[in-house]
Amino acid sequence: MKALNNLKIGVKLIGSFLVIALILVVLSVLSYTSINSLKNNMAEMYHSSTLPIQQIGAASSALYKLRGDIYKFILLPDERSSIRQAIEQDFAAVNEQIDLYRANQLTQEETEALKQFDNAWTLYQRMARDIVSKVESGDDQAALDSIKTGSELSSVRKALDDAMNNLIEINRAHAEELDTMGDNTVQNILRILIIASVVGVLLAMGLGLVITRSINTPLAIMAGGLQKLAQGDLNRDIAQEVKDAIMGRRDEIGIAGKGLGQTELYLQEMAEVASRIASGDLTVKVTPKCEKDEFGHAFGALADEYQNADDANADFYDLSVEPWEPNITTLVDFGKKWKFMVDKKTPIPTPAIVQTNKKGEITYTYENQIGAFEGAGYRDKGIYRPTLSCIMRDFNKLEFCPVCQYAIKQNILFQSSK
What we know:
By secondary structure, the protein is mainly alpha-helical. The protein has 10 helices and 4 strands. A hairpin with a 2-residue loop joins strand 3 (373-376) and strand 4 (379-385).
């Protein structure tokens, strides 16, 4: 589960889709293989049983016609010329079908049965041709005697029938065997497809549940935490191990969890700062998270004290009026700002003269004093700030200047008096 939690959500979702797609591919391959197996069984049944039975049947039909043509050859003297040709065609038809049958892949049993047929057929052809010769020589009576029941030709004809019936029975039995194999194949295919489908569905459901739980459970905790934050509850009642488990993940949920955890810590720090400021401690140090940290702005209605001629807000303030924020001034009405906090010896505006001491260190005149230093409110000229450096000007500064501290305290007192 931990390894799954460390995967990105996109990887999880794509991976689950790929697994489901793989299951479908496996089912498709199984279905194709099974259908192909059925096709092969049907083709084998046709080529090894159905077609041979058809060939034996055609040979049997030609043989029956041959018998009839021999009778007609004896009894119809006026048609003997055409009947003689029909008899030769009958011989050829039987031989053609038997040769086709012989070309098949025969079993040992079929080979032995065909050998019996060949022996009887060779003898039958010789005896049939002998009858034709007797008729052509004018000995019709001898020819008739040769085809009577109980004659040698009759016995050979029976042997031929038995051989053909034996071949047909062999192929019928083989066809039944293939049919049984086909039924078994169908049952196996159905069994495999059912099992594979059930396993696939269970696997897909299990994967869906695991991934859903991996995503939904921490999201539900975080959503509840965000709702509490909106109500001022800093989620102190959520077990730390639960928070650590979410923040320890390496996916987007883990990143969001870290952000939420850091937000909680930040708000807890700010709550502590507010508590100390409210109690009158204005020396509290604040460590900003970034240069866009809005705590100072929101807490004391403070303005940015940095200047940037390229900033889009460079013309934000009208230099002919006094800004409403307590920590910047245009000196239009400086008496309403922090003038009462400025030493009478400090000039207004206050110059930031660079000095170098004996150690080569750079210092500024009035560096640690309250005055009116030019450069604030996104402008290089015309707007002034209380000190050389403050958290509202320098991101690396860890505390508010005395003027900002005073403004924050006054704002807290004002808000608490409502």
